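Dear Dr. L.,

I hope this message finds you well. Following up on our conversation about the binding site, I have prepared a predicted three-dimensional model of the protein together with NAP. For your records, I am including the exact sequence and ligand specification that went into the calculation, followed by the structure tokens. Please feel free to forward this to your student if that is useful.
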Amino acid sequence: MSNFLVPHLQELLGKAKQLPAVNQIELTPFLQRRETRALCAQHGIVVEAYSPLTHGQRLDHPVVQEIARRTGRSVAQVLLRWGVQHGLVVLPKSTKPARIAENGALFDFALDDRAMSDLDALEEGLVTGWDPAEQV
Ligand SMILES: NC(=O)c1ccc[n+]([C@@H]2O[C@H](COP(=O)([O-])OP(=O)(O)OC[C@H]3O[C@@H](n4cnc5c(N)ncnc54)[C@H](OP(=O)(O)O)[C@@H]3O)[C@@H](O)[C@H]2O)c1
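The resulting structure of the complex is given below.
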């Protein structure tokens, strides 16, 4: 399923005999959907992060750029690895083969605790696409 936030999930949980395996929602350090993630975790639903590169809107953010510089990886890889380390499936999109490869090269490095907490502090409710919170 896609774009299910807490109220949508609660409605579903009250009725469904079988729960969905995956919930695809927009999710980045700038839009963390913590309550939705917690509810999904409680019910064994995998969270898949769409638009995990903020649709390009925060690739120039100074905190993310500094972490990229420190870790020797790209800004995109930092944002995606943050999701991986939070147990998310990340779903980036690129039209460029080199970037597609870059976006998949996430499993030969790790962000340290400082980088993770710096990224965790970036919440700003940034919705770059359609906001399912408006459909309750
Ligand atoms: N379920 C839903 O309601 C829903 C809603 C929105 C999106 N999605 C899905 O989520 C996926 C990705 O979302 P998205 O395309 O909206 O956003 P995104 O992956 O956050 O961002 C895509 C943008 O980032 C650029 N980009 C990709 N890799 C990059 C890199 N390594 N370095 C710099 N720039 C990079 C792309 O440009 P280039 O192409 O030029 O590289 C493109 O402009 C898609 O498959 C989409 O279908 C689902």
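In brief: The pocket of NAP is lined by residues 2-3, 24, 50-56, 59, 74, 76, 91-96, 99, 102-103, 129 (CB under 6 Å).

With kind regards,
A. P.
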